[in-house]
Design brief:
9% strand; transmembrane helix; 573 residues; 8-stranded mixed sheet; membrane; alpha/beta; 13 strands; Rossmann fold; Glycerophosphate_synth; Glycosyl transferase; 3 domains; disordered C terminus
Length: 573
């Protein structure tokens, strides 16, 4: 259509040409709509070049004052369209991405520039066509094209300045790291919306009392990592070359919070002690992955973390395991009453997500309406906090939305202050959800072991396995009321948990087995001492050397925007 429209305009067929051109160009704009948001520059180049030539029709057949300027404007427009891919690549240059290093001054991208440029480039052909048929002076044509050209020049100049600053920063990094003198590094590779993996450990690692930094591999999650590491230095190392370049000589240990494939890129440095922390202690398959065997040390919360590997045929030498407790449970309030009045109780419903694989498909979301409905039928207040990955599956996302609508309708009808949506998933931390509840309904996930610290009743949803096999595969189930998610079983379990609670004693026993036998007053020290030992750091710290002062210009608007997501608070694993 672009060719037909342009030929009609050039041949002098004014009205049919304008109609066909406008219809065709409208379709082209729809296909290039990402440009309006600053993405997709360089899309559909051939069609857009043909559309850009169309405004020459009025110059040929109607005559314009200062026609040379109009022709120049069209030539500039065509060149700008053809050069969009180059502008996109230049703007996309990342270079060194770092935060929290005082000595580094980095120029950040200006997303607004490419957004504005994309919009100008979409509007300019229409503006030139209108200028032609309204007989505007050719100098106006030239002015409009020059504005677009100036915008492209500004983007390219900014990209050049960023590249120069990045190269200078790269040259400085070895000296900067030497000045920091880090004892350990936290190595993190994960997709977007996984920042809770990192965020749950950073506050505790800071209490070890020695300098460290975070090495992030995935460019898409860098901004979210910045949002949770606070004042800890962080480096983005996308390639093996940057990993090698930014490995400080002072390092004694490396900590990992997942079993990402690219962990092997750093484990190969044998002079370091490599410690796997994982991002939650549960009976799920990732908590006994054979991949964990490649690390020098495996920190587990309690004896259950050791036995779990052996029970699933994964051999890891005993000397690799270190029981350190689960520092994230510090601050969880203990149960205060032996019995509950369900009409005056709060149920925390924390379903997990669908999982990447069948062996991790533990989610109770398909039964969410029954579970929530039964809790409401018993007069309970409900805190509903879905896993941040749940919305990846449209069917699961729809069910979760229906559950929120059910809670909203009940709140309007009864006045019960249910908590759901952003209030539960972003404004409240997982610990605050624990403390605000009297009992929990959950799936197989790390929140179950964490909630065990409170000694409050737990309903565990069996996703459809044989009950005997389920209890054998997930030993923690022995301390919970196992239900299939039906209203009948959920209702019966709620009533049992609220009255005689026969599993109260079992929960107290399992608490030690899963979370370690450490005094409440000094519970976190089990982890801090072990972390300090592998980092060759004194314990307790000799002096307050952490955290360092954050550079004022590191967290730019770009990074803050990138860090925003549906899961800024720590979600259930």
């Amino acid at each position: 259509m672009a060719l037909v429209a342009t030929l009609l305009l050039l041949s002098g067929a004014k009205y049919p040409g304008v109609v066909v051109w406008l219809v065709g160009y409208a379709g082209c704009v729809v296909m290039c709509r990402k440009m309006w948001r600053g993405r997709g520059l360089g899309a559909h180049l051939i069609a857009r070049v043909l559309f850009a030539i169309g405004p020459a029709g009025p110059i040929i057949h109607h005559g314009l004052s200062v026609a040379w300027a109009a022709w120049t404007a069209i030539a500039i427009l065509v060149m700008l369209v053809r050069s969009e891919s180059f502008v996109r690549r230049a703007h996309g240059y990342t270079g060194v991405r770092a935060s929290g290093f005082d000595q580094l001054t980095l120029r950040q991208k200006k997303p607004w520039t490419v957004r504005l440029y994309g919009r100008i480039m979409l509007v300019l052909p229409v503006a030139l066509l209108a200028a032609g048929y309204f007989h505007l002076n050719g100098l106006w044509w030239l002015l409009m094209s020059l504005i677009a050209g100036m915008m492209a020049t500004f983007i390219l100049a900014d990209a050049f300045a960023r590249r120069t600053a990045s190269r200078r920063a790269q040259q400085m990094l070895p000296t900067v790291l030497e000045t920091l003198n880090p004892a350990f590094v936290v190595y993190w590779d994960a997709p977007r919306n996984s920042q809770q993996q990192l965020g749950m450990w950073i506050p505790h690692l800071k209490r070890v009392g020695v300098p460290f930094y975070v090495m992030v591999r995935d460019r898409r999650s860098y901004g979210q990592a910045v949002s949770v590491v606070d004042d800890v230095p962080i480096l983005h190392c996308p390639t093996m070359a940057t990993v090698e370049r930014n490995r400080s000589e002072s390092l004694r240990a490396a900590f990992y919070v997942n079993n990402a494939a690219r962990n092997t890129h750093f484990v190969r440095y044998g002079e370091l002690t490599h410690v796997q922390l994982l991002h939650g202690d549960s009976d799920k398959a990732p908590s006994y992955s054979p991949v964990t065997a490649m690390f020098d040390k495996v920190f587990v919360a309690g004896q259950a973390g050791i036995d779990r590997y052996a029970a699933h045929g994964v051999f890891i030498p005993d000397e690799k395991f270190v029981i350190v407790g689960r520092p994230q449970v510090v601050g969880i309030e203990r149960r205060h009453t032996e019995t509950l009045d369900l009409t005056d109780s709060t149920v925390f419903y924390a379903p997990t997500w669908k999982g990447f694989h069948e062996d991790a498909a533990y989610s109770s979301i398909p039964r969410a309406l029954d579970i929530v409905g039964e809790a409401l039928a018993h007069g309970c207040r409900v805190i509903f906090r879905q896993h941040p990955y749940n919305d990846r599956d449209p069917e699961f996302a729809l069910i979760a939305e229906q559950a929120r609508e059910l809670l909203a309708a009940d709140a309007a009808k009864t006045g019960r202050a249910h908590v759901f949506g952003a209030a539960a998933e972003q404004e409240m931390s997982i610990l605050e959800c624990f403390n605000a509840s009297d009992l929990m309904i959950a799936d197989v996930s790390s929140v179950v072991a964490d909630y065990l610290y409170s000694e409050k009743p737990i309903l565990l949803v069996n996703p459809g396995q044989d009950p005997a096999e389920f209890r054998e595969e997930f030993p923690l189930a022995s301390a919970t009321y196992v239900v299939d998610g039906s209203r009948e079983e959920v209702g019966a379990a709620l009533e049992s948990a609220a009255t005689d609670d026969p599993l109260g004693v079992v929960r107290r026993e399992k608490r030690t087995y899963y979370l370690g036998d450490f005094p409440d007053a000094t519970y976190e020290e089990g982890f801090l001492r072990a972390a300090a030992e592998v980092a060759h750091a004194p314990w307790p710290p000799a002096e307050a050397v952490w955290p360092p002062v954050r550079a004022t210009d590191d967290l730019t608007a770009e990074v803050r925007a990138e860090a925003q997501g549906p899961s800024s608070a720590s979600p259930p694993a």
